[in-house]
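Lab notebook, page 48
Experiment: co-folding of the full assembly
Goal: obtain a model of how the components sit together before planning crosslinking
Operator: M.T.
Materials (sequences as entered):
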Amino acid sequence: MANGRRSVAQMKPGEVAIISELEDDILSVKLMEMGCLPGATIRFNFSAPLGDPVCISVSGYELSLRLEEASTISILN
Amino acid sequence: MQEKHLKIALVGNPNSGKSSLFNILTGLNQKTGNFPGVTVEKRTGFSKMPDQTTAQFIDLPGIYSLYPRSLDEQIVSEILLHHKSPDCPDVVVVIVDATNLKRSLLLVTQIIDLGLPTVLAMNMMDLVAKAGISFNLIALSEKLGIPVVPINARTGMGVDQLKKVLSQEVSPSKKEIFHVFDEAKRGVEELRHALEIDNDYEAYQFLQQPTSLSFLKAQELTFIDQVKEKHKFFPGKFHGAETVQRYGFIQNLLDEVTLEPANENRTSQSTRFDKILTHRIWGYAIFFGVLFLIFQSIFAWATVPMDFIDGLFASLSNYLNDVLPEGPLTSMLAQGVVPGLGGIAIFIPQIAILFAFISILEESGYMARVVFLMDKIMRKFGLNGKSVVPLISGVACAIPAIMATRTIDNWKERTITILVTPLMSCSARLPVFTILIALIVPDKMVWHFFNLQGLALMGLYLLGFAAALISAIIIKFLIRVNERSYLIMELPTYRWPKWSNVGYTIVDKTKAFVFEAGKIILAIAIVLWVLASYGPGDHMERAEEYVLQKSENLRLTEQGLEDRVAAYKLEHSYAGMLGKSIEPVIRPLGYDWKIGIALVTSFAAREVFVGTMATIYSIGSEEDQTTIKSRMRAEINPDTGGPRYTPAVGFSLLVFYTFAMQCMSTIAVVYRETKGWKWPMIQLIYMTVLAYVSAFIVFQSFS
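Observation: model returned without errors.
Model output:
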């Protein structure tokens, strides 16, 4: 990878990854409460017809996020 | 003297089945009120317990954590953290979706740490079994230190057991799940002693989020700030670390109590539905199909009960007029109170049908997908995916619609939604639209399929919708607040709606409308009656003489005379004078003083237009659409010698009624929801200006 960092916003449908870090301080507390914790497995399900928001599976349920929020969730490659 | 009931609060994530449990526990023994000082709905109900005592249940809004994100959620933290309040529950039942235990346990552990007696109700145990999951509930109960009861809130399985547990003494858990960080300990201790708080985590919460707890007094807030300063308490950092610590505990707990993990069936079935329902073509096609069905039912199916209610109140009014002795009191009852009550009751069918649909869509999990589909589009207009529900509701009535904006957590997006929702054409505009369209649009078919009048009506609804969106964009640029907007929303798995829940929602929302809007509509009806039945001078008492003098050479029937007297009275009443005095203002829109009177009377509630028209054109006694229509058609404009209701005047009136804020109940609700007069006044002014300017343009360009 060129810049070494990938986020959930760049994932493709069906792709599975591990969350490495939450970049945004304010959003991170909300995301963590919803089960998006560093180390958790995340699956990108699909995005809305207009590309935004997106639907992911995390902690055993489905969560929708805007791309803006998804891009604050870094994943391990 | 009332005996003291055990107070039990139901807390849980959205979609955890909390409302189903509440409905099963309390049945029809429930009522909706408001929490003191705030507008969040409070549902309470009573249930007989196995030991023959009665317990009071409180259904709290769904939350994911004690840290609130929206107004709805804030109330839960306040109730659970205010241990000194008489409203503080004796026992908290946390209901969780057992198929989704990991995330649900976050809230459970927070509530356990508050030190209130807590019971864990594990819902959806049938789905757990189907998914092949198996838990050791005894171990779970031991590790958490609280009773755990498996239930199925859809069938009622396990509810008796839950009641049995609740009627025994429940004590708080002795476990402390979250350990307050060393850096925060001194502050917590100082606060506990100073404010006499009975629990570490409660004091920690006071330090974390004092501003979302409205029960804290000003001096307490200052003291909390001092403590924070002194001990260097960093709420944001601690909040994140707390969540990580809790999830660490939860992961260990789940490893120990899960005997058999899930096979991935259930969610994948949901994903298959989502392939179609959020598809780029089918997704929108289905959504518009659903919308069409809703509108169809509101406009076509609701007319049957509406006509019935209309007739019922009309005959009641006539009956009272006949049997009661003549006098101002009878007149007030028959012409003020009864039509006022009828004016409320007539909207019940549409509101009930609309909320039946909304409740079905929410219960099934589809509404979250609508938000998902519409979010990007709505954001362009300064709104939020969640604004879709209020905007759809606005087609029936703006009052429940504005109350539905509470789920929008972003202040700016919520305010914009509140401001533009009344532009959606509500059911009160429909009678006005119908009569005016019938008057000016020919009843013809175009392309053998579309009725011209129907097209005109649809055009008006689209006009209202377009105006709502355009206003939203403009307001978006005018409100200069940059609060971050986000959408972190669960997409619940699809399931069949539970019909009894739908029923309770309908009853609940209809009741809210009747009492919220009802008292205002009724009060206005009485005020209008006074304005329309009293006037200066002797015109009112001697109306009959004056009319007889003027119409000596006309051979009037008794009924005809009575109608003319009524029209004369209205013309010389205070309402009539108001109508005449605004004539110079409304003349550029093409209106005369008679229309002016109708504008005055419908200022408070627009549906009054038709009734006023009937009275003013002396056809009060037979108030049906065709008569009013033909009378209005025959009305001559003395300036031109042609008909008064030219297409220009008609369209100008239609546009005026589409945009004007003629609804006192909406103003009252906006006042309550925004906690002040600023927004309702802004809304009233911008909508009136919009209505006036548009009507002016329409009239001037058509004539």
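Interpretation: The CA atoms of residues 25 and 72 of chain A lie 9 Å apart.
Next step: discuss with group before ordering constructs.
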